[in-house]
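**User:**
Make up any protein.

**Assistant:**
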Amino acid sequence: MRECLPIYAKLIREGEIRASNGSEALCLSWLLQRRVEEGSVVRIEELYPAPNLARVYEGPLQLLTEGWPTPLLKISGPPREAYAKLEWYNPFSFSIKDRTVYALLRSVEGERLVEVSSGNVAVAMGALGNVMGKRVKIYIPSAGSYVAPLLDVLGVEHQILDVTLTVEALEHLEKDIREGAVHPNQFNNDANFVAHVRTAAEADWQLAQVGKRPTHVVAGIGTSGHAAALGFYFGVKYGAKLIAVEPKDWIPGIRRVESGMKWIHWVDAAVVEVSLREAMEGVREFARRYGLLIGPSAGAVYAAYKRMEEEGVYLMVFPDNLLKYVPILDKLP
């Protein structure tokens, strides 16, 4: 899929592209989620959101696809102007992972799926699996056990493992795969990255409504799908810098680059460390200033932004809110 990046870059930079051969048409089909014919012209506007203004939906999937864009909240003016994209407005897992999982499920065949997740992907895949007629099994590292009650409500088969990181749980999928289950593979399936090129276009459209162009993108890295895609899009279009946030110790939903991730290596990024204590201080400060209960990884993103000294327009991605972490709040600093 990496061969598609120059094609996407031309579309982002120039606003349109002609699919001059079959390979280009295939790359554009993947991005636009429809068949693109060789020789046809694709315009960037097709990636912009088309919200359902009446907010009346014929089915649950439309809550997702016609519910975009998620809100963009201005939290600071110049000289370090900042906007936060509130991804808990996605309806199934109340997180950015609804976008990821929807793209993953569209990219694979099969009715029986197996995945590993420490939290949001588990809930999103369970919920969307129900909606899309898939039977889902989730392996959960011990640190993500707080989502097990939600999976019980969804009727999703799951198993909690005595490992810390999601990537350590991958070997447990082998038996299920031998027995015919399909692994959508949030860590390696390029549908993850491509989904968030669309997320970036959505945020770009929103910022354009208020005459803004981001100079910096601040995002946490878990699989690195959304951080890398936003860094790619805004780097190509405006030369924006990507600030990729990793945990100094442990923060739910994000991990360190050396634990193994694919897409962060496709882009230029300044990687910064944030501790769990700093992240939770960010959560509390944001709640007391803006009244919003952001999740720990969003707290880490906010903490990283607060350290920044360069002037400009900052786009932050807040992946989820705090509510699903209530069972472990007393264990967090």
Summary: The chain has three domains: 2-47, 63-95+189-331, 97-178. Residues 99 and 329 are 26 Å apart (CA to CA). DSSP finds eleven helices and eleven strands in the chain. The longest strand covers residues 80-86.
